[in-house]
Each structure stands twice: as structure tokens, then as C-alpha cells.
From TrEMBL:
It is an enzyme of class 3 (hydrolase). Gene3D superfamilies: 3.30.160.20, Ribonuclease III domain. The keyword DNA-binding does not apply. Mg(2+) binds at E36, S109, E112. The active site is at D40, E112. Digests double-stranded RNA. Involved in the processing of primary rRNA transcript to yield the immediate precursors to the large and small rRNAs (23S and 16S). Processes some mRNAs, and tRNAs when they are encoded in the rRNA operon. Processes pre-crRNA and tracrRNA of type II CRISPR loci if present in the organism. CDD domains: RIBOc (cd00593). This is Ribonuclease 3.
């Protein structure tokens, strides 16, 4: 069993593996969305620190692109499978019937939740979590990270924002707008200085954000700004 699944509090691990679709069918269970939020924040920090220490000469914009490549949905889904989360996820019947165990969105979200739960289970000590995540990062071929970092729409839009507005960062506001539990639909809007630049719809939050960035880049191109 992978070290990331080594928990003192088994209830916390069970919650991290529990999707909302399972709780809708099982009274009294807690879903993993709050843990997913925490894990996402931890992975963003650890990946940034990892790149900062590993590549002391790398510029900030390149580190930003590579960080996004390390923690994008497809990469986190691969990490989830390496750790062994695919068939440990607790999903509702409808979600399972629709291939939930192979869903990159569900795998990546569950991985984030487990990371958040592991951090809490180990007394909120980053030094316990850090080497586990860095080992996973080390398993990613450098060429894979480089290719992904060069094509990610969120990175390209952020580069334009920082070139145009300085240190300002795009802000993505994503909400669920419908769909059943096994195929939810999200709408994401990307803002810069409280102005909307693009919108995107998808079946996953991260994919909706990418669609919003793509829409923003498309609109900028129409206006002759890129």
C-alpha cells in the first residue's frame, strides 16, 4: 500500500475517498469536497516550492507554467492511479455505471482530497507530506512537463495578464450549473481586475477553467490584443 494511504484515522481516509454521489445514497456519510479544496491548495504550494528549489535559475513565468503542468487534471489522475485510488474511490451506483473509476476528473479530485486528509491526519505537518508529493513529481518525465506547460491555455492567458497588468493574476469563479451527480456541468468565468474576460462550460471544474481561458484568449485575438 502506498504511503499516502497510511492513515491513523481511517474515518478521515474514508471521507477523502467519498464522492458526493455516494453520500446521496448512503445516509450519514461525509463527502470529500472540503478536503479536495485543502489538497488543491497544498499541491499548489508544494509544487511551487519544488520547482523553486529544483530549478534555481528558472524564471517566474516558466515556473508558473510548469507548476500548472504538474498539477493539471490529467497528471493528478495519473498520480491517483499510481497511488491506487482508482478502485478505492467511493462512488454512487450511477457514477460507477458511467465509468467513474476511470474518470480523470474524479481521480484528480479524489487525489487532492487524500492529500488534504493526509496533511490533517499527520498533525498538519508539511514536512511529512512534502517528500511523498515530491517523489510523485520526480516520476513525471521532464519532457512531459515542458510540453504541457507550453500548451496550457490558463498559462498563456496568465502570461498575457501579467504582461499587460503587471503582478495581477486572473481569478476563476466556477459554479455548478446542472447535470446529474455522475456528469455534473460547471460554468467558469475568468476575471481580471473584476472584469470578465471569458467563460467556459465543462463536466469538470478544472476543464471549465481551461475553457474560460481559451475563450478569453479567443476574444483577445479578435480584438487584436494578442
Amino acid at each position: 500500500m502506498h504511503e499516502l494511504l497510511n492513515f491513523k484515522d481511517e474515518k478521515l481516509l474514508r471521507q477523502a475517498l467519498t464522492h458526493r454521489s455516494y453520500t446521496n445514497e448512503s445516509f450519514g456519510e461525509l463527502h470529500n469536497e472540503r478536503l479536495e479544496f485543502l489538497g488543491d491548495a497544498l499541491l499548489t504550494f508544494i509544487s511551487g516550492e519544488y520547482l523553486y528549489c529544483r530549478y534555481p535559475e528558472m524564471a517566474e513565468d516558466e515556473m508558473t507554467r510548469r507548476r500548472s503542468a504538474l498539477v493539471d487534471e490529467k497528471q493528478l489522475a495519473k498520480f491517483a492511479m499510481e497511488v491506487g485510488l482508482d478502485f478505492r474511490m467511493r462512488l454512487g451506483r450511477g457514477m460507477i455505471q458511467n465509468g467513474g473509476f476511470q474518470s480523470p476528473n474524479l481521480l484528480s479530485s479524489t487525489f487532492e482530497a487524500v492529500v488534504g486528509a493526509y496533511y490533517l491526519d499527520h498533525d498538519r505537518k508539511m514536512e511529512v507530506l512534502r517528500p511523498i508529493i515530491e517523489e510523485l513529481f520526480d516520476s513525471v518525465p521532464a519532457t512531459t512537463v515542458e510540453i504541457r506547460s507550453n500548451i496550457d491555455s490558463k498559462n498563456r492567458f496568465q502570461e498575457w495578464v501579467q504582461t499587460t497588468f503587471g503582478s495581477v493574476l486572473p481569478k476563476y469563479v466556477t459554479e455548478r450549473i446542472g447535470g446529474p451527480d455522475h456528469a455534473p456541468e460547471y460554468l467558469s468565468t475568468v476575471f481580471v481586475n473584476d472584469k470578465s474576460y471569458g467563460k467556459g462550460k465543462a463536466c469538470g471544474k478544472k476543464e471549465a477553467e481551461k475553457k474560460a481561458a481559451e475563450n478569453a484568449l479567443s476574444e483577445l485575438k479578435k480584438q487584436g490584443l494578442i
